[in-house]
Input
Amino acid sequence: MVELCRAHKQPMVPSGGRTGLAGGAVAMRGELVVSLERMNRIDPIDVTGLTLRVDAGAVTEQVHIHCAAQGLTWPVDLASKGSSQVGGNLATNAGGVKVIRYGHARHWVLGLVVVTGAGDVLELGGALEKNNTGVDLRQLFIGSEGTLGFITEATLKLTRLPERLEVALFALDGIDAGLRLFESARRERFELSAYELFTEPCMARFRAHRGFGPPFARPSPCYVLVEAEACDPASFERWAHGALAAPGVADGVLAQTPAQGRELWRLREGISEALGATGLPHKNDVALPVGSLAAFCRELTDVFAASYPGWEICLFGHVGDGNLHINVMKPDALGREEFFRLTGDADHAVFDLVKRHRGSISAEHGIGLVKKDYLGYSRSPAEIALMRRLKALLDPDNLLNPGKILDA
Output
């Protein structure tokens, strides 16, 4: 197909589960949309090597179900796992809620099969845990959003499914308290698998959408959901009870059963749906050094208070890895086009703040179309020039997902 498209100078856009939030799979200029949906093979698990070979169109949740039967998992866990596909996860180097424990998607793939823009089929890595033979070419394609090559197959690295998870939800008086609690949890002997923060505006919209909210008598400025694995339940419970006496902690609840743990997770995983159902959000996904999160949030509030007073800002994210999702909600009195014009201007101020804190303008959603004009806030001119040379080498006719990440 790639060779045929080259002969006719026909651009192509890869299409996976279409759950991306940066416009990476948008076809705007008559591109051929290449769906991987029917390339969904999932092979038997190699239980000795703990590996699994799948097609790029395999749905993330189906991979999880397939592995769970053997007590294993591919620990890339996303709210969109029911429709996202493995190829898209790798093309965007997906993060998710378990990065603090397991890292990004790139850490859980041993091999790839990729078709480049020159029509070459590259088999990279296979099922080898060790392969120290020069540049690791797999990593060029992971996170490249289909601009260097189309991923068609992957050999995934698996790990044991946790036998038991402990889940707690705390109500806090601010983000500073959330970071102090995070420091406390990290000093304990249990393994943190998730540490999620969300603010009261997120919960207010969740309540409006779903009709219920946190199991606390009164709202609090923010909340954190803590999940731990590989720990003694009694030690986690002792820590959770001790945390209630910490400064800035207003209340807390500890899940007593797996079902209660899943109910607490619904509060976090339902936020994006609730924001879209109750308003029009302008989304940003940024990363900061964990120690800079509180100062960044204070300065972010000042930026919007000075230039856009009265706008509602809904913050949530993966505090353990410094990933913050900034959702600016459209005021009712403001038209859609004017809102996006103003938020486009605001993005420059937000990304300038990100740059001053040595952060990234995209933590896990990628660049795509949405953030292409802002890439210079996170990448130097030399880095961007090198990315252009790689693109020209692997896709000499600029036919693979053209106009994404970089202009031609």
Notes: The first strand starts at residue 12 and ends at 15. The longest helix spans residues 336-356. The CA atoms of residues 148 and 394 lie 6 Å apart.
